[in-house]
Amino acid sequence: MPRQPPITHRHFLDASYARSWLLVPADKPERFTEAFESAADAVILDLEDAVIASKKDIARAELTRWTRSGGRAWVRINDATTEHWHNDLTAIAALDNIEGVMLAKTETAEQVDATAQRLNPGTRIIALVETAAGMVAATSIAQSTAIFRLAFGSGDYRRDTGMGESPLAMAYPRSHLTAASRAAGLPGPIDGPTVSFMQSVLEDETLTAASLGATGRICMRPEQASAVNKILSPTDHDACWARKVIDTLGEDGARVSDGSDLPRLARTRRITHLDKLFSAHGLPSIPKSTP
Fold this sequence. Notes:
Elements: E1 20-25, H1 32-36, E2 42-46, H2 56-68, E3 73-77, H3 83-92, E4 98-103, H4 109-118, E5 124-129, H5 132-136, H6 138-142, E6 147-152, H7 154-161, H8 167-183, E7 190-191, H9 199-211, E8 216-219, H10 224-231, H11 236-249, H12 261-280
Parallel strand pairs: 1-2, 1-8, 2-3, 3-4, 4-5, 5-6, 7-8
Helix pairs in contact: 2-3, 9-10, 11-12
Protein name: CoA ester lyase
Keywords: Lyase, Magnesium, Metal-binding
InterPro entries: Aldolase/citrate-lyase_domain, Citrate_lyase_beta/mcl1/mcl2, Pyrv/PenolPyrv_kinase-like_dom, Pyrv_kinase-like_dom_sf
């Protein structure tokens, strides 16, 4: 059967604002079309956990074939302590259509710097923090000049620490990544995925992550993207509230009466900016609703 031509992703949203990050095994090219036609803001071709060791070379070959035929994608690469990391970077350095890389199990800023040195200049790096060591070092990792965003590998983090999956157990790592991102001037972190097939679990976990500062989420399946986009976008209620604040305080803040108005004005400007941004790109792909 002839290979399908690469799909040009229909979203051209700045990845700083990308909400849904869809992981796709790079050794499964039959899944590429569905992924790139989905509602996901960003697609990540995975060379790491989704690909067994014996198929790593096949995955790199499929990634190379995809990008050299015009396709573009983010790539999750193996962690810097493995031989696969070296081989991943050798393959990626020869490609032009790489949006950026997600470095698995990032534990030090030095690993980020070493990765950046092997990539084409300016390649964006997302540090996936998945261990206790990585979480402790998150502040210094975020300060690396090569870092674009932080992401939370929640499943591996729980395995490493023995923590449960309750919102309370996960509140500290999520909050810590948010604080580290903010201190470094980065966009909000990308939260780990929902493994459950239940829509209600996806929605609850996305709402919890958003309440702790996450502005993106990793998705395991294409159908998760729309719900994640919806929850991580301003609602109609948010937009209405923002308009009322602007009417009261003025778009330029000319009618601010005291310091307590400034947080409201800052939130208003963010809501208005995101609402315009997502609407300009036709996002989200399903109607928003008032909570």
